[in-house]
From TrEMBL:
UniProt protein name: Endoribonuclease Dicer-like protein 2b
SMART domains assigned: DSRM, RIBOc
Domain DRBM: 684-753
Low complexity composition-biased segments: 1-17
Cofactor: Mn(2+); Mg(2+)
SUPFAM superfamilies associated with the record: dsRNA-binding domain-like (SSF54768), RNase III domain-like (SSF69065)
Amino acid sequence: MDGSASVSSSAAADVADTAGGEDSFESGEDTGNALRQLIPNFTHSAEDTYQHRQPVYFPEELLDNWVSFSRRGLYHCYNISLRGCFNTTTPPTDIILAVKCDMGPEFLRNSFNSGGVEVTIQYIRIIHLNQEQVNMEFITSPSFLISRILFLVSFINASFLSLRSPVLMMRRTRFLLLQVIFARRFQTTILSLLIGNGHSEVRDAIKYFHEPQVSLGVVYLLLPSVYGKIDWCGIKFSTSSVYDATDKGMRHCHSCKDADLLQTMDGPCCRCMLRNSVVYIPRDRKFYNTTGFLDLNANDPLHLRDRSADSSKRYGVCLTSESNPLLVASGLFTVPKFLHKCYEKGKEPSGRNAIKLPPELCRVVMAPVSTNTLCSFSYVPSMMFRIQCLLLSSKLKIQLGPRMQQFNITALKGYIHGEEFNLNKWIIPGLGYDRCGDTKSFFLPTNNMYSLKAISIKTKTIADTVEALIGAYLSASGEQAAFHFIKSLGMDVELHSEMPYERKIITKSEEIIDVRSLETMLGYVFNDRSLLIEALTHSSYNTAGPCYERLEFLGDAVLDHIITDYFYKLYYPGCTPALLTNLRKASVNNCCYAHAAVKAGLHKHMLHSSSKQMIDDLENSGRSFSGPSHGWEPGIGLPENLADLIESIAGAIYLDSKHKKEVVWRAMRRLLEPLATPKTVELSPVSELKETCERKKYPYPSYSPTRDDGVGVTRVVAGVKAAGTVYYEIGEGRNQKVAQLLAAKALLQKMKAASVA
């Protein structure tokens, strides 16, 4: 086996990323059971079993302690850009990710799309955070000047001392630490603001930042970028003056020649600092993002009539500087969890409507900090979680190797995220705890991987993840790679390049069926027309040749695969796995196939002992067979052997074309169009009733079937206990499945009429 069997890290990251989500693809029952047999300690039971105390791996590249990290001096930097549809009209700026080491070849340039947001991460270079950069950026800072003088004194003294002088080494170390300290304080503040959005949480975060951390934790820097360069000026000067008593004199930025001071709650502050800042209104207990000024003040009549303005009268405060212009502000960005969601472009999130604030009511928390930077950092948690998955998938890819011999499923467990991504449990780099206040301790398991915590994972989740890996191999490297991965799991399967199939060749096929008409309908010319005859032959037909049952079995599997592949490539990851499952359900079912067969007129070509009777019954039914075939309703009640025709013809073309699935799809698509789309797909009543009960926390519906062989009808009673009342309805059909669908539909209508659904 060569390297072509490898799976991409992005595909593997999708596996780890979606394993713990609420929406998942329905796995094949046979494959799922086979995979569960390979999982140690698995026992069959009515309920799914759990594998307890399973580790959750965390990438080593993002772990360190801040003391060690700050003294490194050299850092590997990656540019992260975001493009796509955002819940804001403000485009985000780029972010520079600085880590302790090279993250590997996968990150030279990598892109991933989640929920309509295109994230591109690209390696830039190694940077050195040193004294000279501090000198260039912070020359006007009073704290810098004092430090510079101390450094010069140390340098003069060093001329009389050894080069290893502790004084000189200490002073050098301090300058190497400066930028890391500023950057850490910046990201701690801005992320605490966006995620916590609480005064006490931000204050505690700033306090915690001053505490030296020597224990292992989540350590990396996220730096705002301006025109392709790190915005060191913004990092330095946007640090909070509210929570840091040492910075009370920092009231205007270094670029201001003449300070234009305005009165704030904490004293005078330059207009340049207030223009783009984060302010806190104590009476409201809310943070706001300011974006500029209005040529109005607190006494202006227009301001007093404006409901969006926060006046001093509202708070019972007497302003001392009522002539100050008003600030234009809006609420902070809501941190989106964009891993599996699709957002509408241009739709502003609630709470970001513009309001007007007197500066004297505001406490400046961060200034200056642009709206673009706030927008970018609101995507950091989801974005970094995805990068963590990519880093882990790179390690898993190495572990799987290009030549898979035997893969132990137990080694996979630490890579599985058995829980959905939770923003409250995401650890802010720079803090030693998450929003829930949990302190995280990292330990080193036996396989040399760092683990964040231990969780319990369902056995089914592990089996689903292995199935997802098979899909990743199939999607990224083809069928042969997927086959080799399946073999590495210990499953005894063989991949055949040809499918042996003996048949009796019928030379005069035109005397049995209308070959030309059928080939025109399908847009495919058969090399072996006996396959087409077999595909149309029902077991009741009096002939020495084979019936369509074997081709139907084959075509069922082929159609399932190619239709699933079609929807996956067309819509994923723009829609959820649950929606993809619904699209497949609506397109791969007997009702859909039967309707498509009658609409195309295939029933007129079927070789059946009662062909004439079937044709007459359909023509006299009064039903219209035009329109879309997808869903459950168009073909409900039609004989299942009509659906068998679609599957057997697909199997015949698959064999005749030498297993070319694209040829099968081209022919069968003509019969099945128009296909289901996210806008046209509808849930079956059975699925909708189940989801309604889950949403309303009702007991699951019950179905009681009875069969009347005298008239060939099955009756199903569907019942649900909702809001203390038992509702039930009856459905009748030629089989239990049809009767159950009709019963569920009637029951849903009754529950909706009673306002309990």
